[in-house]
User: Fold these one by one.
Assistant:
Number 1:
Amino acid sequence: METTSRRTLRWQLATVLDVHDEAPKVRTFRLALAEPATHLPGQYYVVRLTAEDGYTAQRSYSVASAPDGRAEIELTVERLDDGEVSEFLHDVVVPGDVLEVRGPVGGWFAWDGSGPALLVGGGSGQVPLVAMLRHARALGRPDLVRMVLSVRTPRGLYYGDELHGPEVHPVFTKVVPEGSTRPAGRLRLDDVAPLVRGGETAFVCGSPAFADAAAALLAEAGLPAAAIRIEQFGPTGS
Amino acid sequence: MPPVTRGFVGRRKRDPRLPPGQYDVGDQWPVLTAEPAPNLDTARWTFRIDGLVERPAEWTWDEIRALPRERWDGDIHCVTTWTKFGMTWEGIPIDTLLEAAGPLPGARYVVAHSHTGYTTNLPLADITGGRAWLAFAAGTAPAAPAPLTREHGGPARLLVPHLYFWKSAKWVAGLRLLAEDEPGFWERNGYHDRGDPWAEQRFGGD
């Protein structure tokens, strides 16, 4: 899977079509690309901001939308404290604005829809995994994916009603929804082990601490290390 | 110059130590790996240099630790745009290790490979001349370097601080010297072949 290999990734202009909230401090930007490119679920785009004096800042954001053949992508961005780019996107950008982007990037943390996948996400790590879920559903093969999402509270699940269904297993670490039989708490072996069927590729996305813990659980559940692909978001301690 | 983004001024004062497009990550040291971090036992750990060399060489952990060490102080740059200033590292110069193996005249490239299977490619010239180390300790000055933790590549990783940090392979197991360039893991997955942060060589074609 070498989707970006040996191909020049040019900067292009993207027009913001829509901005909407997914959760507290989490917002999705729908962009129209001047030069459309087909992405694989799991891949990301780089966004570059340029000031009048030529100062630039750039960050990478996962694509949340499935490759649906349209010249549009959705990037979901968490507003980080002191986040130079995410703050600007949240506080300033409105529909009609033009942003510079390039992508799609990343040939490793990407799922082409051809085999079973176990998706394990924590917090904003759900973004690239939702692109995979959406892709599986669009292919008419929701059975290919099984998804575990670890979030603090029910409000931490993005994408409205989409994260319901037999493929999706949310886990709440602080506050559980009414009627839930699982107590609040971190991801455990018995949250993931029943979803392992053998032969799948696992995609783990979240903070470094979450990803490390989740990868250890997957190994305990019998997944070989070579079947576990990881993408980490955000900073860790020093 | 790229087109100006409406309303963007940028909050940070430009620090001349920052390569283009990078920001100062401060006290944090992000962890970014594509695979599970392994638990490597130093009792069975080895480091090997082979390929186009006069005599393939292999060291145990104790043998590596017995070699003369160097301290390197400076900044590291990750392709994901963070830069960490003022680090201090300790390790064995790659020059010392290469000298033991004796590179053949045709050797021009190297693939660094890790105990996890990770690979990254470098021109031999980028890891010689006092610019690369087999590092086993790191910290932020003025603190002394502390043993590398598992998530930062411990017990030992490659340190090539003048290139983006994906070249500084974590959990490094060895170097293979080659006549021709052979793209490594990220280089096959879209990243630049060399990765010079000052030339902003992030992705293939930059």
Number 2:
Amino acid sequence: MKQELLHILQQDCRITLEKLAVMMDQPLEAVAEALQDMEKNGVILRYTPVINWDRVGKERVEGMIEVRTTPQRDEGFDSIAKRIYRFDEVKSVYLMSGAYDLLLHVEAPTLKELALFVSSKLSVLENVTGTATHFVLKCYKSDGIIFEDEPRDRRLAVNP
Amino acid sequence: MDYTRFQNASVSAVPKSGIRKFFDIVQTMPRAISLGVGEPDFVTPFHIRNAAIDSLLDGETQYTSNAGKLSLRNEIAYYVRHRYGLTYDPQGEIIATVGASEGIDLALRAMLSPGDEVVVPEPSFVSYCPGVIFAGGTPVPIVTGAENNFMLTPETLKAAITPKTKALIMPYPNNPTGGIIDRESLQKLRDVIIENDLVVISDEIYSELTYSPEGHVSIASLPRMRERTIYLNGFSKAFAMTGWRIGYVCAPVPLMENMLKIHQYAIMCASVQAQVAAEEALKRGREDNYADIVTMRESYNRRRRLMLDSFHKMGLDCFEPLGAFYVFPSIAKTGLTSEVFCERLLREKEVACVPGTAFGACGEGFIRCCYATALDKLTIALDRIDDFLQSL
């Protein structure tokens, strides 16, 4: 049931508990319990909107930063990752296989501020041995949602 | 120039589809949410689309055999045997058609002579009665009602049969009601059908979208029915492939011979890329237990329950539809006709539904609402319908 619930919530997380219960064909209490369970266990962290920031009209810079680090004894990459994710500029941190170790998704109000983050906050960290910054030029799809203008529904409005 | 001389009188006499009018109004309302669609809200699964792309890149751009690629017919034979217990020989008993719609046309034209009657349970798909007329026959509509979950009953069937009756169209799972027909009811009908020596044209295009525990039962799978059934199905609804126009007809050779002749001369063969895609749909389905269908069906089923529950909460009478992707609530208690209801709902609340009367006169007092629509839009549409009902 939990996976099915998550599937529905990913399409519309504002749906009411009553409607969820009907769709799942389950008693209200069971659905409420499953949700609370997932919230408690950190399966569901937040119910947030997917935003197309380009449409907001506010100047904003996004980037992906590859970070090479020196892993620590007993800790591996955890301590350096934790050190990095505390910065407000950092939206996501992934530990990667391949040519570098961590991939950061970062965001700042201006190019200058993002540059400053890299040069004065990130690169200077002990155990960070190198960075490569890539700026995001355009977002086409995020979290399964297509951001472009093409009509989402190509079907004729009424047909037999 | 006087064109009437060039317009076949019986074709001219068939009224235009009642749906057209709503389509024209909706076109002018960009913010309207449409529950008036009649097709899946999924795009064809990617591996199926990709099979057609590969075939094009390969230069597969030639005619296929009239009945369709043998490899596709083999897959169809496996599928209908595995899913519905039907045995058809890919050599001679299966034709790949341009949608199940072509199958309806083939079956009627191959069978009917002027004056022959065809019994058509209503409400049902808009094409049956015109199809019978175009084939030179006379459609005889039978009223089915919510009290019987819109199932055809042996009594009403018997009452509609005359010495001229040649065929019965079986439209289950049903568009527009969402009604299905169970094994027990089919068995009762079977006796009447055999007794009166009728052929059944069974349109089972929605068979994969059945939500009852028993699942879909094909009338052709009942003893002594295979010999008198023309079985129609296709890929549009099961695999979200409406625009590809690919379906199939299965029937015993003597019934098939005339159909193949018409198909051969009028159509030649279904589009090769559509055939390739259809073959891929079935082949992959055989391997992964029809995962494409299962995912889509579960998604429809959740929305089906939501729709039904919402209409009940609004105080509308609505039987539980166990098939297709339509809900068919009664709006009779509003005192409005179906058409006025739908037109006002569209103009005042920007939600498009289809009046039940588009599917036969007995659809009066009902509206067809399709739940193959994104969940967020569906919830908004339901809220708007509720508002509308309260404003009356």
Number 3:
Amino acid sequence: MKVFAVAEHRFGELNPLSIELLNLANKLGESNAVVIGKDVGKFAAELAKYADKVWKIEDASLENYNPELYIDVLLQLFQNEKPDVVLIGNTAQGAEYAPYLAVKMNAPIVTDVVGVNSANGLVASRFVMQGKIMVDLRVKSMPCVLTIRQGAFKEGVEKNGQIVDAGIKPSKPAGRKFLEYVQPEAGEVDITKANVIVAVGRGIEDAANISLAEELANALGGVVAGSRPVIDNGWLPKDRQVGISGKVVKPKLYLALGISGAFQHVMGMKDSELIIAVNKDPEAPIFGVAHYGVVANLFDIVPELLDKLKGK
Amino acid sequence: MKIIVLAKHAPDPQSEVGVAADGKSLSLGTAVFDINDWDRYAVEEAIRIKEKMGGEVVVVGVGKSEDTLRKCLAMGADRAIKVPIESGLDAYQTAEVICEAIKNEKFDMIFAGLMSQDLNNSLVGVILAAMLNLPFATAVTSLEIGNGVVTVRREIEGGYQEAVQLPMPCLLTIQSGINEPRYVSVMGIKKAKTKELKEVNITPKSSTVEVAKMYLPPVKKAELITGDPSQIAAKIIAILKDRGLIG
């Protein structure tokens, strides 16, 4: 199978997920990396260590990611090279342009893939129901586009691929214009520096209950953080968000209260030294990452913990 | 400003969900259905723009979407279109029927939620953009409408955002937290009853993926701490002491 993996970079850094795409590509067949930008020589050299061939697509207009221009140049390349499978990272960038590219290639697409089996056709595995259920999807035609979840294909082989300039430029200017990257606002508390984090999720139910978590955090010498629904509701400021789109934390203790454990959150806390999760739902994916789990209502457990900590 | 919003009636993944006996579909017997959470923010954003600038908000639902469409109308959308096909895992089919259902609508923008809370594909919105050749942006966290253009911020990794400008018409997928969606009022529910909810029958032609198997994921499970709340708390304290996390 002829596989094309589209690399990703931002702020002068290659996203390591690009190498994971190549790990999968090498399992499936002939691995081709594509890297798009203004000056991508450095990235191409790195990718060549894991690919049979690296295609550079360079143009001044490609300095910052623009989905229309990416799709434009990729379609030109794929028209000539006729890939069987196109792999793209399931990131804010990849998840954005991959479906559009798939439509223009007349290709089936499966997103956020964690497993691929090519023994009999191509079957891609992914989660549904926010991690609770898994589905194997068979694509009905080739080529197909897959967006790949970070961390799913960490093992791979080394190669010493050839780097070629694809000689492709965008065929027309994009309607969408890149303006700027906006930095996160610095908050009062840097949760990445805390030894103990008491993290709350949707199970905290109301802004008024945040004080209960704060009390527990104080008793443990820690800080309060939250998962996306808590931040969305404005119950905690954005700089307290743990997850891919927030902060990555590795405290000595991560106490997850009423957090279901969506992948986007788990990627922000899975490397904590000790994870204890309290959740009503015994099937909550958080119990897949926690060291200790309590299947209970957090409002039954936290007051008991506070009593015991204060009376110790 | 005329805005079309895609709204899905979806099961809450935090309710009890499982795999059906056929091993190829979801079992949703007791699951709680409501408007997909991301779509709630999308509908709210569209209604806010209409309230400020005038215009119309049209919501489109695929599948058993009547309750959700009525809810959108009660929030303040003007009319609704329902395509009563069974919307499955093939997002091409969903996008295709929406494309057909709105073919006579002139619009400035289409909003979709970033993803559906049940299938988490993040596909229908952008596939529709491609079918209609529209400029698009996903995971929008704020937007500002200018003269024939819309400037948006979209969420990327690590707390950063990307600011981009798009010409209209365009399609945006909306990230949760962009606004504070309103609750439906009794007045809103009354008004919604008089609003148009049109049903259109369209059979999708595309078929791009099929379910080979559906199953519970093999996961390593945490060691469970059991007992009554006081016993559980005591066991947690013991673990923390053992690890030197408390004195």
